[in-house]
Design a protein that fits this description.
By secondary structure, this protein is an all-alpha fold. 71% of the residues lie in helices and 0% in strands. The chain has five helices and no strands. Helix 3 runs antiparallel to helix 5.
Length: 101
């Protein structure tokens, strides 16, 4: 958001996710689902074309995604978000299991 000068207000308007929730996601005060991440990335792309590719490149730390088209990028981002969500759920189950023991 910062690199592309995209405001939380603009993303909120485009994604339908409140500015308050966006702030909580950014500060780690609220967990984000893969669907919400995908919505935010799509909103950034709509506001600033190329934002999705830049996000992927920053995530990968390289220009790995340069040859991908928009559909391929969307699929990749959804897979990443789903993996992150599954890890969070697994971590929570593990913590509950340890606490119950």
């Amino acid at each position: 958001m910062k690199a592309r000068k995209i405001s939380a207000s603009a993303i909120a308007a485009k994604s339908g996710i409140s500015r308050n929730h966006i702030s909580m996601y950014r500060t780690g005060k609220r967990d984000m689902t893969s669907e919400k991440l995908a919505s935010l990335i799509e909103a950034m792309e709509a506001i600033s074309p190329g934002a999705k590719l830049e996000f992927c490149q920053r995530l990968a730390g390289q220009n790995f995604f340069a040859e991908m088209n928009s559909d391929q990028l969307s699929s990749m981002l959804f897979a990443i978000a789903t993996t992150l969500q599954n890890r969070r759920v697994s971590d929570e189950i593990m913590k509950e299991s340890i606490t119950a023991s």
